[in-house]
Amino acid sequence: MAKKGKQKSSNSAIALNKKARHDYFIEETFEAGLALQGWEVKSLREGKVNLSESYVLLKNGEAFLFGCHISPLKTASTHVVADPLRTRKLLLNNHEIAKLFRGVEQQGYAVVALKMYWKKAFIKLEIGLAKGKKQHDKRATEKEREWNKTKERLMKHSV
Predict the structure, then answer these.
(1) CA 27 to CA 93: how far, in whole Å?
(2) What pLDDT score was predicted for residue 10?
(3) Looking at residue 77, what is its pLDDT?
(4) What are the transmembrane regions (predicted)?
């Protein structure tokens, strides 16, 4: 009989970039795989990652993740030089990369990392084609969020 190991939920989040949703209007999202080293996967299992300053650079028909900080574990191998801010290649289809290139070059969008999560045994990164918010847009979004919370409270107490 086969042993049943621990199973994670299909979309358990490793890290979120809440700052991106605050600073940008997300027009479209994509799911990308990541080319990682062994020590990085071990660190991700421990949740030692920071996406807040990360962004995606498109170059020569490929996509790369910059600024993602994955802290190496203390127990990592001594013969491997662990660079926490290493540039990591994103694994996307050609038509997805073409869509990102069009958005960035023609329409002035930015490509930002939104969420890193497990999908079965693979680590996936949700990236978004985003347009920057102005200060008044951020205030309007905050005001709308507050109003929705107040509305929910009122509806809850009236029923």
Answers:
(1) 19
(2) 47
(3) 65
(4) none
H/E element, 105: helix 94-107
- What torsion do the CA atoms of 70, 75, 81, 85 make, to the nearest 10 degrees? 10
32 domain residue, yes or no: yes
Q: Taking residues 117-138, what's their average pLDDT?
A: 85
Give the pLDDT of residue 30.
92
Using the predicted structure, report yes or no on whether residue 94 has a pLDDT greater than 50. yes
How do the residues of the chain divide into helix, strand and coil, expressed in percent and rounded to 5? 35, 35, 35
**CA gyration radius, the chain:** 19
Query: Does residue 20 lie in a domain region?
Result: yes
**Domain range enclosing 77:** 13-133
**How open is the CA angle 113-105-65, to the nearest 5 degrees?**
25
Residue 113 lies in a domain: yes
Three-state SS at 87:
coil
Task: Name the residue with tokens 């660079």.
Answer: 83
